[in-house]
C-alpha cells in the first residue's frame, strides 16, 4: 500500500485507537506491557526478543513465542 | 422456533435502520415470517424508512406496559406479505422498558415469527442493553471510516462480554472507486481490524436514498445494494453465497470509457 495514501494513515490510526480502547489505557502502555511481560517471562524461560510476540484482542492477551 | 437478531453499530448514521428494513423485507422473499422492532425509544425511524409512519396506532412501550395486545401494535407491511413492524414510542425515553421485559417479549414473538430483527439505537446505554438482551445473534454494521470502525470494535467487545453466541459484520457504503485509489479502506482492511466473520458488503448506492425517499426497501428496486442485501438474507439462513463483485456495477458506457482511459 502506498505510504502516502489516506487508507495507510487511517489504518495506522485505527490500530492505535482500537488497541488503547481494548486495554483501557494510553497507546504507549502497549509497548510497556510488552516490555515488562517479556522481562518477567525471560527470567524463567529461554526467550529472545525476536521470538516473543504479544497480541491484544478484545477479550484476551495472547503471548506467543517460538524457538527451541 | 424463531431467531432473534439485533442489528447494532455503536456509531449512529451508518445504516442500521436501512439494514434492518432491507434484511426484514428480504427474508420474506424466502417465505419467512418476519417482525422488525424499532427499539430506539424517543427517536423512531424504522417506520419512516419502511413507509408505514401513517399506520401507527400502538407501539413497543404500549405492548410492554400492557396497554394493548401484541397483535394490535404490529403493523402489516404494505408491500411485503409476512413482514410486520413493531414501532417504537416517540414520546417515551429509554428507561421506559428494561432488558428483562425485552427478553420476555422476544421470547413470546419467537413462537410466531421465523425471524425477529431488532433495530438497535446508537450508543452503548440502556437502549443498547435492551435490544441486546433478547437477541440470539448480532449483526454489527459499520462503514469504512475510522470513527465507525472504532465504535464497532467497542460494540463487538461488549457483545462478546455479554456472551452473544454469533456475531457477523456488515460493511456499508463501500465506494470501489475510492478503495482503488487508496482513499477508502477495503472490505479486507476492515475485517482485518475487527476480526469477526463478514456477512455482507454493501456498495454505496443512490438507490438507497431513493428507496428511503419513497419509504420502500431498496431490495424492491433493481440495484446493487438490493442484491447485496438479498445475499445477506441467504447467508443469515445458512446458505453459502459468494461475495459479489462490487466493481462491476458500471454499465456498458463506463466500461468502454474505462477501456479507453489511460492510467
TrEMBL record, chain A:
One of its GO terms (biological process) is regulation of division septum assembly. Pfam families: MinE. It comes from the Bacteria. Keywords: Cell cycle, Cell division. Belongs to the MinE family. Prevents the cell division inhibition by proteins MinC and MinD at internal division sites while permitting inhibition at polar sites. This ensures cell division at the proper site by restricting the formation of a division septum at the midpoint of the long axis of the cell. This is Cell division topological specificity factor MinE. It comes from Dorea phocaeensis. The lineage of its organism: Bacteria, Bacillati, Bacillota, Clostridia, Lachnospirales.
UniProtKB/TrEMBL annotation, chain B:
ATP binds at residues 11-18. Keywords: ATP-binding, Cell cycle, Cell division, Nucleotide-binding, Septation. Residues 3-159 form the AAA domain. GO terms for biological process: division septum assembly; negative regulation of cell division. It comes from the Bacteria. The keyword Translocase does not apply. CDD domains: MinD (cd02036). One of its GO terms (molecular function) is ATP hydrolysis activity. The keyword ATP-binding applies. InterPro entries: AAA_dom, MinD, MinD_FleN, P-loop_NTPase, ParA/MinD_ATPase. One of its GO terms (cellular component) is cytoplasmic side of plasma membrane. Belongs to the ParA family. MinD subfamily. ATPase required for the correct placement of the division site. Cell division inhibitors MinC and MinD act in concert to form an inhibitor capable of blocking formation of the polar Z ring septums. Rapidly oscillates between the poles of the cell to destabilize FtsZ filaments that have formed before they mature into polar Z rings. PANTHER family: SEPTUM SITE-DETERMINING PROTEIN MIND HOMOLOG, CHLOROPLASTIC, SEPTUM SITE-DETERMINING PROTEIN MIND HOMOLOG, CHLOROPLASTIC-RELATED. This is Septum site-determining protein MinD.
Amino acid at each position: 500500500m502506498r505510504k502516502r495514501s489516506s487508507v495507510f494513515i487511517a489504518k495506522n490510526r485505527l490500530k492505535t485507537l482500537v488497541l488503547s480502547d481494548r486495554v483501557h489505557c494510553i497507546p504507549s502502555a502497549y509497548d510497556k506491557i510488552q516490555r515488562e511481560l517479556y522481562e518477567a517471562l525471560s527470567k524463567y524461560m529461554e526467550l529472545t526478543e525476536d521470538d516473543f510476540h504479544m497480541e491484544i484482542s478484545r477479550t484476551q492477551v495472547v503471548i506467543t513465542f517460538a524457538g527451541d | 422456533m424463531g431467531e432473534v437478531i439485533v442489528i447494532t453499530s455503536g456509531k449512529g448514521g451508518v445504516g442500521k435502520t436501512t439494514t434492518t428494513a432491507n434484511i426484514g423485507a428480504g427474508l420474506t422473499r424466502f417465505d419467512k415470517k418476519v417482525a422488525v422492532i424499532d427499539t430506539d425509544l424517543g427517536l423512531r425511524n424504522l417506520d419512516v424508512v419502511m413507509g408505514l409512519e401513517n399506520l401507527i396506532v400502538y407501539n413497543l412501550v404500549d405492548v410492554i406496559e400492557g396497554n394493548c395486545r401484541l397483535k394490535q401494535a404490529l403493523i402489516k407491511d404494505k408491500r411485503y406479505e409476512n413482514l410486520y413492524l413493531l414501532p417504537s414510542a416517540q414520546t417515551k425515553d429509554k428507561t421506559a422498558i428494561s432488558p428483562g421485559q425485552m427478553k420476555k417479549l422476544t421470547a413470546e414473538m419467537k413462537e410466531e415469527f421465523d425471524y425477529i430483527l431488532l433495530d438497535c439505537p446508537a450508543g452503548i446505554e440502556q437502549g443498547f442493553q435492551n435490544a441486546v438482551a433478547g437477541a440470539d445473534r448480532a449483526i454489527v454494521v459499520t462503514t469504512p471510516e475510522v470513527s465507525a470502525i472504532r465504535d464497532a470494535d467497542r460494540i463487538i467487545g461488549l457483545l462478546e462480554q455479554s456472551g452473544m453466541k454469533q456475531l457477523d459484520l456488515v460493511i456499508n457504503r463501500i465506494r470501489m472507486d475510492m478503495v482503488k485509489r487508496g482513499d477508502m479502506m477495503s472490505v479486507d482492511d476492515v475485517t482485518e481490524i475487527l476480526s469477526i466473520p463478514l456477512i455482507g458488503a454493501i456498495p454505496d448506492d443512490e438507490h438507497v436514498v431513493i428507496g428511503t425517499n419513497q419509504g420502500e426497501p431498496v431490495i424492491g428496486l433493481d440495484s446493487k445494494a438490493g442484491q447485496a442485501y438479498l445475499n445477506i438474507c441467504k447467508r443469515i439462513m445458512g446458505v453459502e453465497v459468494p461475495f459479489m463483485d462490487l466493481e462491476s456495477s458500471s454499465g456498458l458506457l463506463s466500461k468502454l470509457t474505462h477501456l479507453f482511459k489511460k492510467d
